[in-house]
Amino acid sequence: MHSQFFRITVALFATAASIGHAEPSLSLAEAQRLAAKDAPQVEAQAAAVRAAQQATISAAEQSDPKLIVGIDNLPIDTADRFSLTRDFMTMRKVGVMQDFIRSEKLQLRGDRANAEMRKEVAMLSLAKVNLRRDVALAWIDRFFAERQLDLLKELASEGKLQISAANAALAGGKGQATDPFAARLTVAQLTDRIIDSERLIARAQANLVRWLGPAAKQPLDVAPAFDQLEHRHQDLIGNLDNHPHLAMYAPMQAMAESEMKLARAAKHPDWSLEVSYAQRGPAFSNMLSVGVRIDLPIFQSRRQDPAIASKAALVEQVRAQAEDAKRMYAAEIEALVADWDAAKRRVQRYTAELLPLAHERTDVALAAYRGGKADLLSVLDARKVEIDTRLNHLQAQGDLARAWANLNFVLPDAKDQK
User: Fold this and answer.
1) CATH number, domain at 248?
2) Helices 304-349 & 376-408, crossing angle to 10 degrees?
3) Which of 143, 163, 209, 292 sees the fewest Cβ atoms within 10 Å?
């Protein structure tokens, strides 16, 4: 009595210790959080945003002044050759030159830089959205590959019992000689599926390691509710210009329009001012020079006008690309909604109708076999239909989960918008 109590106590403590040291499970939300902490593509895009922000600071500024240093009129022959002081025309010159760009052009350069910064910010939002979706899809692939493996192992265990039953029946003078072979074939086919399922798990885990590193090998937590979306249908198809997949087109169009306006502004010349001081020999006076340089856009039909037309065509190109992307994106969203809705109905139908019918058919066939009214092949046939039905049910659940991930993570996380 005491020894039995001792064994029970030790078993309880061992169970408690194993629970206490159990590896934490990895939920989908935790996987996304871990991936966001160290995502190279997000870090790269964040660096692009910082670079664009810094570029806006100097975009609308005048250019730096230029230092002028030189020697004018240095003689190279006669007795005064290479002398800096004997010839009255020789001057050692130092000065500065400043280009003055029209304020309109500076404003347009600033507008273009700001538009490029907004484009990079939109691309950063898109990178974060894509990261959450890709991690979710990788997590879902592993989750359902593991569920498939569990199901196949369960079915293989049941198949081995059928082999034993067929052998026992044959030894007792019942059944047919081919029954054990048919049962073994069913188990062999399940074993082949198990091998393929293990391959899918390995691939899914390798893909998850890309995002999470060693944490990807933790056991997975329970799945979220794949039949419920965070976003309403009108949120998914409304205000498309602000969706991360389309938000970059507005600043891209602004950039193209700024380029076109800058091409037009090139018809109005800029100018530069140059001031220099020239020192001559001690017998001569020193000189001060002041000069102004002005661009002369006098060949506009061959220079400025073609440039303007080229930039205008690029504006139309961006507009057309934006409209095409919006239509394609709206169609993709509607298709994903249709996929999700159909998958949800399929899962419900499998749960309510197909699975119970397949299981009931197997029970009837098994009862008939035990009563000597049917052979084992009819049982195995019914069992095969039930196996395919259960696997198809799991596949429908996976389709539902993937459509859910593509829709549920198409908009930015609320935390990213703060």
Assistant:
1) 1.20.1600.10
2) 140
3) 292
